[in-house]
Design a protein that fits this description.
Layout (H helix, E strand, L loop, with lengths): L7 E4 L4 H12 L7 E4 L3 H9 L11 E4 L2 E4 H10 L16 H19 L19
Parallel strand pairs: 1-2
Antiparallel strand pairs: 1-3, 3-4
């Protein structure tokens, strides 16, 4: 099992929406505290498998922080709530029942390739942010 950095986001590396969300996090993370790994990477597969998740099921967004694993809508809310400034208000969505949040999340996840497209290969980070990506 690889060493898991804190504030690690596991994402579908061929999904255009997921890649755009990673770019969004990078833009809103001037302190560079977030790290990234595609689910398709060796690190991503090993983490998924070690936590009983199926690495071929690419419909699960994962965030690992403070020794905890957040999934689906919990992961998305937790990431945004860790930005500085007014973004922390997004924690209010934790009051929406998880079944409702995850239902919306699952609808988007099931349709993301059709709505946003997909790439043939995982995104390649720029040299400036490459150190934040784990293979």
């Amino acid at each position: 099992m690889p060493q898991i950095p804190d504030n690690l986001i596991l994402f579908d590396g061929v999904c255009n929406l997921c890649s755009a969300l990673v770019q969004f996090v990078i833009r809103h993370d001037p302190a560079a505290k977030f790290h990234f790994a595609a689910i398709q990477s060796q690190v991503g597969r090993e983490i998924f498998e070690s936590h009983g998740l199926d690495p071929t099921d690419l419909q699960t967004f994962v965030f690992i922080a403070d020794g905890r694993m957040f999934l689906r809508s919990d992961a998305a809310i937790e990431v945004v709530a860790r930005f500085t400034g007014a973004w922390r208000i997004f924690r209010i969505f934790l009051f929406v029942p998880r079944v409702v949040r995850d239902s919306i999340y699952s609808t988007i996840a099931r349709n993301r390739y059709r709505w946003f497209g997909r790439k043939e290969v995982c995104m390649m980070p720029t040299p400036e942010i490459k150190a934040r990506f784990h293979d």
